[in-house]
Design goal:
This protein is mainly α. It contains 2 helices and no strands.
Length: 81
């Protein structure tokens, strides 16, 4: 089984988020977009691993739930009458 890293406390997350935002202020737009792409890829990989290996998924509620996208085909369908 793959090791699962411990979750950050709320205070640790707030501190990390503040450092991340401060670092982001010094990045160019292209650097910031590249970093965002890296984070999105990391999330896609985590979800793929969790789908294949449910035993390594963290406790319920600690994952981001899928969200509706405005550009998804489902949103392009006409409303039901």
């Amino acid at each position: 089984m793959l090791p699962v890293s411990p979750l950050l406390s709320d205070a640790d997350f707030a501190a990390m988020k503040a450092r991340f935002v401060a670092a982001g202020d010094r990045l160019t737009d292209l650097q910031l977009l590249d970093l965002a792409d890296c984070y999105h890829e990391m999330l896609r990989q985590r979800r793929a691993i969790r789908a294949r290996h449910p035993a390594v998924a963290p406790a319920r509620g600690s994952c981001i739930a899928p969200e509706a996208r405005s550009f998804s085909p489902a949103s392009e369908q006409p409303p039901a009458e």
